[in-house]
Amino acid sequence: MTSLSEKMKVMSPADIKIYNSGESAIFCSLGEEISPGVYSRVNDFEKFIKQLDLQGIIETVPSYSGLMIYYNPGLLERETLVNAVNRFQLSGNMEPDEKQMPGVVVPVCYGGMYGPDLQHVAEQCSLEPDEVISIHSSVSYLIYMLGFTPGFPYLGGMDSRISTPRKDDPALSVPAGSVGIAGDQTGIYPVASPGGWQIIGRTPVTLFNPSLESPFLFEPGMRVTFRSVSADEFRVITEQVANGSYITETENRNGEGE
Questions:
Q1: Which domains occur in the chain, in start order?
Q2: What is the pTM of this model?
Q3: Phi-psi sector, 157: left (phi>0), alpha (psi -120 to 50), beta
Q4: Alpha helices (H) in the chain, listed in sequence order
Q5: Which of 172, 203, 171 has its CA nearest to residue 187?
Q6: CA-CA distance, 204 to 198, in Å (whole number)?
Q7: pLDDT higher for 112 or 100?
């Protein structure tokens, strides 16, 4: 008799590898590397699964190169879900979708009390602080996924010239809005939490507000660019955010804020 795992191997072409994750989830791997092309396939795949509207799917969670699908085995058989994966591949939707979601421009005050580790990053990279700021704020970053804390964006595409290892001794509390670097990644702390990233600046923009119907500012697939602001502008934006008058900056097709 053929086991379910053997059936899955037969039914799953090489493009997408399916792994069991307990009794009520499967992980679908669409690639081995972290890249916009692989992530685009993950994004297209998630849309395809959602559009099927299969009864029993509880949640889909994208990552750098794969998709975790949680489901209720009492309502949805694993074999039916695996067949859905095959349908995506047979439909010819394996080519990356080059269309980009709207970009968000995030104001950041670098250095000083808002970026206590900026000088350390500069020294580690044999650069001046202003050069670190210029390099960090000149890239359009892709949000691969949210995690670690609610709404924390894992951003891809940081210039390797400012790559800096995590701290040996993590801080007990990193302020909300802190922008940090850890290895080849950069990200933003949505809420105050412990953390070991090198903090180079802070944004006054709220990334996570649980009182809103849509609590997260970001979602996977969006683009983020950073705009350097002065301490005075940081305070102005902080007041605007507090009184509800702040309007999130977006990015046009030429990469300029509007």
A1: 4-90 (3.30.1360.40), 103-251 (2.40.100.10)
A2: 0.74
A3: left
A4: 4-11, 36-52, 78-90, 118-124, 129-136, 231-243
A5: 203
A6: 18
A7: 112
